[in-house]
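quick q for whoever's on today - can somebody do inverse folding on this one?? i tried earlier but teh output was garbage lol. tokens:
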């Protein structure tokens, strides 16, 4: 099973969401801990993977050697890939 770690920017965004959206994202992350590559899609333009949860996207780095999923960024699908 993988461990979750969050970047500060991701935490700040997630804290602003409504409770139901937070719960959906949290539940999907719990599923990812068991088998991350079933849910994650490789990104081509930036390093990492994306997790789709409704209208939200999470950018995640996977460290297989230590079994850690690092949530780098979270945001709405229309602007998650902007810098």
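ok took a stab at it. sequence:
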């Amino acid at each position: 099973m993988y461990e979750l770690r969050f970047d500060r920017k991701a935490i700040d965004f997630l804290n602003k969401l409504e409770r139901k959206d937070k719960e959906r994202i949290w539940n999907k992350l719990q599923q990812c801990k068991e088998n991350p590559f079933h849910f994650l899609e490789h990104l081509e333009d930036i390093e990492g993977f994306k997790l789709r949860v409704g209208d939200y996207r999470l950018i995640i780095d996977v460290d297989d050697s230590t079994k850690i999923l690092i949530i780098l960024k979270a945001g709405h699908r229309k602007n998650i890939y902007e810098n």
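fwiw The chain has one domain: 3-76. also The domain at 3-76 is CATH 3.30.2310.20 (YaeB-like fold). so keep that in mind when u check it
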